[in-house]
């Protein structure tokens, strides 16, 4: 009898942790509009903590800037969270998430939340955030959890409580389109150190069983072991591509055999010939969702080129982003084209 009970428990656990069947994933996708949008942080925030902490949470700016997105037909924002905001004030953090979702819903915009990230600054702390370095691309963006997970192993327990609390709270919220569990695992030199958290966050999410699909985006074709794990554990396949149309078409072709919905969750780097004019028609023709980097140029300064030293004037050709803080477009023709693509 004990053996039978153990077997039943094991099968239940495995079922709870399984990826959506292909048919379920495709039915879910068919019920959605063509997904277009941007990675969103309000122009008044230098990083994720400044967006979500109580003293700097800025619903006025969020409302105004999501309004810009709605005017061009965007219907999905990809938004980064940070565990430190939850650790400092879990109840308040969740209330601010609700406020954000209420604002986005007014514009018929759904949200893809991102939990973890291996990119940019390794050190972070609650409270006032550093001012952006003039003209430096993403000078204040934060990893989550970064190398803290290596030096403080007990942090893994905190991260489990965090992920399960957020997912349990919002697992049935129809304003949330999907959950992106981990942005670019292994990046910025983390390499294989990212494996434990990557495997754990998948297990934590599957244990909660949110109604929304989960995903972990492919970002580096050379990271074959990471890529295979991410593909095997994603209900919806997401990927990043900042290169030209030849590279984009090759990426799409390489992922089509998985027969799951595809969404590009990072693209649009104008100096790389990754633009709305070149890429949106390809995405639409192939039924692939399109989420570019950056909506409004602000304290993240991602309209400046990556890797720059700072202090330079604003570039004539923006790297990322679409609007200025006052709503003026970087390129009016670009705005017209996006709107036209979303209305077809």
UniProtKB/TrEMBL annotation:
<dbReference type="InterPro" id="IPR017853">
    <property type="entry name" value="GH"/>
</dbReference>
<keyword id="KW-0732">Signal</keyword>
<protein>
    <recommendedName>
        <fullName>Cellulase (Glycosyl hydrolase family 5)</fullName>
    </recommendedName>
</protein>
<feature type="signal peptide">
    <location>
        <begin position="1"/>
        <end position="18"/>
    </location>
</feature>
